[in-house]
Write a structure and sequence with these properties.
Layout (H helix, E strand, L loop, with lengths): L25 E6 L6 E6 L2 E4 H6 L17 H6 L1 H15 L5 H4 L1 H7 E3 L3 E4 L7 E4 L3 H12 L15 E3 L5 E3 L4 E2 L2 E4 L7 E4 L3 E2 L2 E7 L18 E8 L2 E2 H7 L13 E3 L4 E2 L7 E3 L17 E3 L2 E7 L7 E7 L7 H9 L10 E3 L14 H4 L7 E2 L5 E2 L7 E9 L4 E12 L4
Parallel strand pairs: 6-22, 8-16, 9-26
Antiparallel strand pairs: 1-2, 1-5, 2-3, 3-4, 6-7, 10-11, 12-15, 13-14, 13-22, 14-16, 14-17, 18-19, 20-21, 20-25, 23-24, 25-26
The structure holds calcium ion (CA).
Length: 421
């Protein structure tokens, strides 16, 4: 049983919780009483400690110690048959069927940690991070701002998923503040200057965590691409637009992107999202053979971005979008990334690029929402924004809506701190 909508857990879970028994996302956590980071699964308002279950012999896995590391990499490398087996076992242990986890009080209190007592860490040791540009709406909006509506999409855009190699060392888990970067920019008139970015932006994206990699020189055929996907996280690809604009020709983004990338800490698996598969947009022209898929599967995942200033009590939602709008799918991104023989490695993070949808309410960046900073965004407090100001908090959420439950991602959230000058 991969996904039973009627199943309930013995752990009580609120109907709007992102983490019902249908989800079971993986993360890495520690507690003050046990500071060694280890693997856990989110269930309602608890983290189920997988290292405890493994030590007690309650999880059958091919090699011991999969869950006692400070990253999920060993488990990610194990592949889909092991992921499915562990999911079935966890689903059983957490179900309402009487199990030792439910009835052994000491075990239960050791293994089920209240979320407020858990510190969440990055889920994987990420060696490589690649960012794509897979949303047609986003590429069209940005291209229109820079080149006009006639030449909005670059000539290659409809033929391949454009990407660039990002920076893995500055990926942060949700909750870490982000420092406004300094850099070189070109004022409209005058010479280049160095200083804090004046055009700090967010980008709403989906992060794809790679499970098993591929050997150098062996491309991943598109039909096998999803076998290499462990799961998804929400991702904010922070962007300093003024630094980016001055530096990006001819080699693409560099310091305008590499200062920070924030991800949500729980990795939602493809098994959890199985019931939410849907069709991706039709591609015209048809791509080359190595990018052609049979079914063109994507996922119906709602996405929201909220901005909270110091004058707002709750985040103000500025974007509602959906993963289903993406023109290039996860499978196409992986097939393209490896078509030259490039080797993906376990724990690598691939990001889709900003996920905008049709209509202004689905614009996934301030660059689009404020038309390049020419149109003010008015917040309920009366404050206005073109780009982010210091102490603004950006909060991304996402979920797939089931019948009576949600398979959610939790939060991808961070606050902007003033530049160090
Ligand atoms: Ca991006």
């Amino acid at each position: 049983m991969i996904h039973d909508p009627a199943q309930r857990s013995f752990v009580s879970v609120e109907p709007n919780s992102p983490f019902p028994i249908q989800n079971l996302p993986y993360g890495i956590f520690s507690t003050s009483t046990r500071p060694a980071a280890r693997a856990g699964v989110a269930i309602g308002d608890y983290v189920l400690d997988l290292a405890v279950l493994e030590k007690r012999g309650l999880l059958r896995v091919p090699n011991q110690g999969l869950f006692s590391h400070s990253s999920l990499n060993a488990f990610m490398a194990a592949g889909r048959p092991v992921w499915q087996s562990v999911r079935r076992q966890l689903s059983h242990l957490l179900s309402q069927t009487p199990t030792v986890l439910q009835h052994d009080t000491a075990l239960r209190s050791e293994a089920l940690v209240p979320t407020e007592r858990a510190t969440l860490h990055l889920p994987a040791q990420i060696q490589n991070y690649t960012d794509f540009y897979a949303s047609r709406e986003h590429a069209t909006n940005v291209g229109t701002l820079f080149r006009g509506p006639e030449n909005a999409l670059p000539p290659n855009w409809l033929h391949l998923p454009i990407g660039y190699h990002g920076r893995a060392s500055s990926i942060l888990e949700s909750g870490n503040d982000v420092r406004r970067p300094c850099g070189q920019t070109q004022p409209p008139d005058g010479d280049p200057i160095f200083g804090p970015s004046q055009r700090l932006d967010f980008e709403l994206e989906l992060g794809i965590f790679i499970g098993p990699g591929n050997p150098l020189g062996s491309p991943i055929p598109i039909g096998n691409a999803l076998d290499h996907v462990f799961g998804f996280v929400l991702l904010n690809d922070w962007s300093a637009r003024d630094i980016q604009k001055w530096e990006y020709v001819p080699l693409g983004p560099f310091l305008g992107k590499s200062f920070a990338t924030t991800i949500s800490p729980w990795v939602v698996t493809l098994e959890a999202l199985e019931a939410f598969r849907c069709s991706a947009p039709v591609q015209d022209p048809a791509p080359l053979d190595y990018l052609q898929e049979g079914a063109r599967d994507t996922w119906d995942i709602h996405l929201e971005v909220g901005i909270q200033t110091r004058c707002l009590r709750v985040p103000h939602v500025v974007c509602r979008s959906n993963v289903r709008h993406l023109y290039w799918t996860a499978a196409q991104i992986i097939a393209h990334h490896t078509c030259n023989g490039c080797n993906l490695q376990t724990g690598d993070l691939l990001a889709t690029g900003t996920i905008s949808g049709p209509g202004e309410a689905a614009y996934g960046s301030l660059l689009e929402i404020t038309a390049g900073g020419t149109r003010k965004l008015v917040l309920p407090s009366g404050e206005t924004r073109t780009f982010l100001e210091d102490y603004d908090q950006v909060r991304m959420t996402g979920w797939a809506q089931g019948d009576g439950f949600r398979v959610g991602f939790g939060e991808c959230m961070a606050t902007v701190l003033p530049a160090l000058v």
